[in-house]
Amino acid sequence: MAYDEALAKRVRRALQDATGVTERKMFGGIAFMVNGNMCCGIQERNLVVRTGPHAYDNALTRPHARVCDFTGKPMKGLVMVAHEGIRRSDSLKRWVRLGTGYACSLPVKQPK
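Above: the chain's sequence. Below: its structure in token form.
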């Protein structure tokens, strides 16, 4: 399963000022990690955002967001945002900030 490389470039630009950012192939797409913790990723043309448990329900109320269930089961703490919800740069940045904020709240993971 391929991922949208143009969207990946946009996410990289949104993360350009963040420190500790790495990329990793994951779930048939690409994941963006901050200090070793996933903050967001791309599966096909969708943005996957790690919201954490506290922001999860609120994130699901936003336009074009839905439960992340590409594994066949809902993944609590992850939200999938359809391409329509991230067309505008400011929308994409808001979602990326949400994921980055959660990833930065977690303990730093050392690379293996």
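Residues 5-105 form a domain with the Aspartate Aminotransferase, domain 1 fold (CATH 3.90.1150.30).
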